[in-house]
Amino acid sequence: MFSVIKRNPVSVMLAVLLHVLIVVFLVFGFDWSKIHKPATPNANVVQAHTVDAKQLDQAKEKERAIEREKQRKEALKRKQAEEKKRQQLEQKRIAKQKAERQKQEAERKRQAQLKKEREAKEAKRKAEEKRLAVVEAKRKAEAKRKAEAEAKRKAELEKKRKAELEARRKAEAKRKAEAAAQAERERALQEQLAAEQNSREIDRYVAVIKQQIERNWLKPGQAGKELSCIVQVRLIPGGDVVPGGVSIVSSSGNPAFDRSVETAVYKAAPLQVPSGPLFESFRTLRLKFKPSS
Q1: Residue 115 burial by CB count (10 A; 0-12/13-18/19+): exposed, middle or buried?
Q2: Is the distance from CB of 229 to CB of 261 less than 8 angstroms?
Q3: Exposure pattern of 209-244 as b/e (b: 16+ CB <10 Å)?
Q4: Which has the closest alpha carbon to 219: 118, 144, 115, 293?
Q5: Which class for 285: exposed (0-12), middle (13-18), buried (19 or more C-beta within 10 A)?
Q6: Which residue(s) pair with 241 in the sheet?
Q7: Per-residue pLDDT tens over the stretch 197-208
Q8: Residues contacting residue 17 through CB under 8 Å, at least 6 positions apart
């Protein structure tokens, strides 16, 4: 309705004024029949006209009062409406602010809850990492301890193995040394026995050879008993004398005595010599002869 008044204020005012006039005429009880009566004297007509104007002024004043009252009421109503609207807007604003604060508070709580959850999750993650780090540290420490124990065990086994090997090596070396010493002693003994045997054999063969030569030796008649010479004889296996292999290496001072010895050697050939390795001692033989032998 207010929107209609605002759009057409003049039309509304005219309609209201018309209605007010109708009400006034009805209230004051105008006699419409008097209007159609014959005209009265001028004085009376003037008086009637004055009354009508006064009533009209009163009606207008009353209308204006009604209008003012109406305007006042409308103004009051508008003011109340505006106040109500303002209050509604204020309530809406307050409600909006409250809703916004509630929303902000809810968001703050949600963010706080999210932060709390994140912090709890982070704390849990860190605690789990710490626990896993402790577990890993224990595992590594245990692995290190086991590795060190295993390394120590292996080192001890290796040390023991090397010690056993060294002991066996030393024992073997000692055994070999003792065996070698024993073999060397036996060899030396064998060599000594062989040398003694060979020496006896050589002496026997030398004695036989000297006897063989002496049986073929024609001693000079003037040879004194103090004469002696050493003759060197080179032989070949079988006892034959190498041609030119007889020589005097230590002369008696008597050429005839020396020549008689050389001649006896040639005449006695082949000389009786041993075979095999022992012959090597007879390839170059030195013999001493003197008349008294």
Answers
A1: exposed
A2: yes
A3: bbebbeeebebeeebeeebbbbbebebeeebebeee
A4: 293
A5: buried
A6: 235
A7: 888 988 999 999
A8: 63
Average pLDDT, the chain: 83
DSSP for 179-209, written as a single string: HHHHHHHHHHHHHHHHHHHHHHHHHHHHHHH
Predicted pLDDT of residue 7:
67
Q: What does DSSP assign to residue 225?
A: T
Residue 206 neighbours by CB distance under 10 Å:
16
Q: For the chain, which ranges sit under pLDDT 50?
A: 30, 32, 34-46, 49
Residue (of 46, 77, 74, 58) closest to 20 by Cα position:
58
Here the tokens at position 36 are 């159609």
- Residues 176, 173: Cα–Cα separation, whole Å: 5
pTM: 0.40
